[in-house]
Design brief:
Length: 272
């Protein structure tokens, strides 16, 4: 029992050390810090004005004004969560540091947990200012969602990590030639994630694809809370269950590609 406790303690120290390394990278560069908050804030301002325009055009659309801003903010949690995970990994590739990291006792699952940790920090730094900006500019507070906000935030962040794990798996398999996927892959699921419109708008053959993705359940749940003041437990359960399955599958895919790269000596070769 003491041995297990000792291993967990050492493991936590290694994860903490790697997370601190990424934090110092951000702290040491003002442009990096500003860039994290820049795009979410610009997107919030843009969609906020579009919502204000809707407000003046239609009472039906006016009801959706808060929903649109909420959707923009929550979508950024998913997008920035994925990007925070993938970019941190890419920085190791760009600096050809991956080989150096894994000559240390660091284990692959500890590396994954460290990437998840820095992804969460990047999301908070990036989306936080946009959330604060929405309150004085558009009189909309995402915190009006109450407790469900934690459930929505967590599920979207986890699915962002799922996409991040798949992107890093492709990077391990194909090298930095696949780095554009870090920005592009997530937009493949955007049309069927029901971010700005309900799943029912989609053609029937696309609706079943939407329902096997956690974001569709989250955004439908968000609309139910904001428009009907109703929290649907079934949608939350479905999102959690799907996330669990996808997280397990993407972790296995990552570990398979990581072990193959280590076995073939590609960890030292992958880089610019």
């Amino acid at each position: 029992m003491q041995e297990i406790s000792k291993n967990i303690k050492h493991s936590f120290k290694r994860i903490r050390g790697l997370v601190l390394r990424y934090v110092y990278l951000i702290k040491g560069s003002l442009p990096r810090l500003l860039e994290l908050a820049y795009w979410p804030s610009i997107q919030l301002v843009l969609w906020g004005f579009i919502s204000q325009f809707f407000l003046t055009q239609s009472s039906v659309l006016a009801e959706a004004a808060g929903i649109l801003i909420g959707a923009v903010l929550l979508w950024d949690v998913l997008f920035r969560g994925q990007l925070g995970f993938s970019i941190s990994f890419l920085e190791e590739l760009w600096s050809r540091n991956l080989g150096h990291i894994f000559v240390t006792p660091l284990r692959p699952y500890e590396f994954i947990l460290a990437l998840m940790g820095i992804s969460l920090i990047r999301v908070l730094i990036g989306v936080g200012p946009a959330i604060m900006l929405a309150i004085p500019l558009y009189h909309f507070s995402i915190f009006s969602l109450g407790f469900p906000l934690i459930a929505f935030f967590t599920n979207l962040l986890i699915f962002g990590w799922v996409i991040g794990l798949l992107v890093t798996s492709l990077l391990l398999r194909f090298g930095v030639g696949a780095e554009s996927l870090a920005w592009a892959l997530i937009f493949l699921i955007a049309p069927v994630s029901a971010i700005y419109y309900p799943v029912s708008i989609l053609p029937n053959w696309l609706q079943w694809i939407a329902w096997i993705l956690p974001p569709a359940h989250v955004f439908e749940g968000m609309r139910a809370v904001l428009a009907q003041d109703y929290f649907d437990n079934t949608l939350l359960f479905n999102a959690c269950a799907l996330n669990l399955v996808y997280l397990l599958i993407s972790s296995i895919v990552f570990l398979y590609n990581f072990n193959a790269a280590r076995r073939e000596g590609r960890l030292l070769q992958i880089g610019e």
